[in-house]
Write a structure and sequence with these properties.
There is one protein chain. The protein is an alpha/beta fold. It folds into two domains: 197 residues, Periplasmic binding protein-like II (D-Maltodextrin-Binding Protein, domain 2); 145 residues, D-Maltodextrin-Binding Protein, domain 2. The protein has 15 helices and nine strands. Helix 7 packs parallel to helix 15. The longest helix has 16 residues.
């Protein structure tokens, strides 16, 4: 995994050269309720995250044809975004990626007048530290990195990372294939701030990671639930929405927010600075913010919905899913990621080295 910041810095000159001069301002041109642009929208988003029915209904209502491409990491998205210039109109970055893109002037400022449904977003998600005042991004879904356990197979209590990564579980574990995530778990287990990535702290957690990673059977960020559902593994560290889907189908799959704390992620919708169809992008964002539309998304992909108006429409069963909506006291242990700048490259080097069996 390349770091977001390093990818931006490496590709930015090429992207600018390929696209030619652009206006200095990054403020959108007051999109109107009915877009005057050609009826196209190029959406670049995570896989298994936006129901096709939602996209189809948007097209039926507006006449705007949505072309969808998927990515499996923020780093992959940034690489293609910058290499493709103005190819994409709407992206779905996570919090630390938004922070990096804002810093490098790669996002279009949103037009609040075109986002009448923004008021549906809960107040705690409308002033996040990486984008104060939601000037460049609108929260889509939030979630947690936690532990999913097949309780038919694992009988010992699992409360945190230390309980997962034990010799008894060797060859029975799935984890996210993400160096930043994996390293943050060791930081949390060692009582370090997950954003305090320094050479000294990386060296401190290295022995722990060298014990943990040989125990892992499957690395999967796209669909970690699959190996759990198929019985290939018995427990793992996964996205909360994946665990919520497992629990919905079979209550033997328990979800635990690690006692040590972990990552609270916020995935948002944002418009690249060079987008060819910014008006259509605003229309799509405002459509997604409708309570009934956002509810459909939650039904298909049960992450934590930052749209409070949509949450009010969810059933008691959906709200009681422990992976979607964990106890409030447990959420207080979670932290969002911040952009690490150049220091993030050392995380990739460390995890790659350990996976390869290096010292």
């Amino acid at each position: 995994m390349k770091t977001v910041r390093s990818v931006i810095l490496a590709l930015l000159p090429l992207a600018l050269a390929a696209c030619g001069p652009k206006p200095a301002s990054t403020t959108a041109n007051s999109p109107s309720p009915a877009s005057t642009e050609e009826k196209k929208l190029n959406l670049y988003c995570w896989s298994e995250y936006i129901p096709q029915s939602v996209i189809d209904d948007f097209t039926k209502e507006t006449g705007i044809k949505v072309s969808v491409e998927n990515y499996s990491s923020n780093e992959e998205m940034v690489t293609k975004l910058l290499a493709g210039g103005g190819k994409y109109d709407l992206i779905q970055p996570s919090e630390y990626t938004i922070e990096a893109l804002i810093r490098e002037n790669q996002l279009l400022a949103l037009n609040p007048a075109s986002l009448s449904n923004l008021a549906n977003i809960s107040s705690e998600f409308r002033n996040m530290p990486y984008d104060a005042g939601n000037k460049f991004s609108v929260p889509y879904m939030a979630g947690f990195v936690g532990i999913c356990v097949n309780t038919d197979k694992v009988k010992t209590p699992i409360k945190g990372f230390a309980d997962v990564f034990t010799p008894a579980h060797k060859g029975r574990i799935v984890v996210l294939d993400d160096a930043r995530e994996i390293t943050s778990w060791a930081f949390a287990a060692d009582k370090l701030d997950i954003n305090d990535v320094t050479p000294e702290n990386l060296e401190k957690v290295k022995p722990m990671l060298k014990k943990w990673l040989p125990l892992v059977k499957v690395y999967d960020s796209d669909s970690p639930k699959t190996s759990l559902k198929n019985g290939d593994v018995d427990l793992g560290v996964v996205w909360s929405g994946e665990a919520a889907l497992l629990y919905k189908d079979d209550k033997k799959f328990a979800f635990v927010l690690p006692s040590e704390g972990s990552h609270l992620f916020v995935d948002s919708l944002a418009i690249p600075k060079l987008a060819a169809h910014p008006q259509n992008a605003h229309l799509f964002i405002n459509y997604i913010l409708r309570p009934e539309v956002s509810r459909k998304i939650s039904e298909a992909f049960p992450y934590y919905n930052p749209n409070s108006a949509a949450r009010a429409l969810l059933s008691a069963e959906e709200i009681s899913n422990p992976a979607s909506y964990p106890p409030a006291q447990d959420i207080t242990r979670m932290q969002t990621f911040r952009d690490l700048g150049k220091q993030a490259a050392s995380i990739d080097e460390l995890i790659t080295q350990i996976k390869a069996g290096g010292k």
